Amino acid sequence: MASGCGRGRYLCPIGGFVVTLGQTAVQLDRSMRLLFRPGEFGRWKHVAEPGEFDAERLERVGGRVLGTGCVVSDC
Asked: I need a labelling partner for 34 at 20 to 30 A (CA). Which of 1, 57, 72, 75 fits?
């Protein structure tokens, strides 16, 4: 796949920062929606509500559908 003018760099719609496909980003193979789901994260940490970091991302794209081929941060 040729990288074109952007050399494989994209603006992640979730974080709002530049990512590089294959290095710091992945391309979605199906449509997906960003949702927060409470649960266990880590060894003994239960998260019931999104923290400040996650809340910012949910405010940006929460509930929107990101289509097939969309490039997003791999983290």
From this structure: 1
Query: Global pTM?
Result: 0.73
Q: Can you give the length of the chain in residues?
A: 75
The pLDDT tens digits of the residues spanning 3-48 come to 555 678 999 999 899 999 999 999 999 999 988 889 888 778 899 9
With b meaning 16 or more CB within 10 Å and e meaning fewer, what string describes 25-60? Answer: beeeeeeeebeeeeeeeeeeeeeeebeeeeeebeee
Q: Which residue has the tokens 């509930």?
A: 63
Phi then psi for residue 32, to 5 deg, are: -140, 155
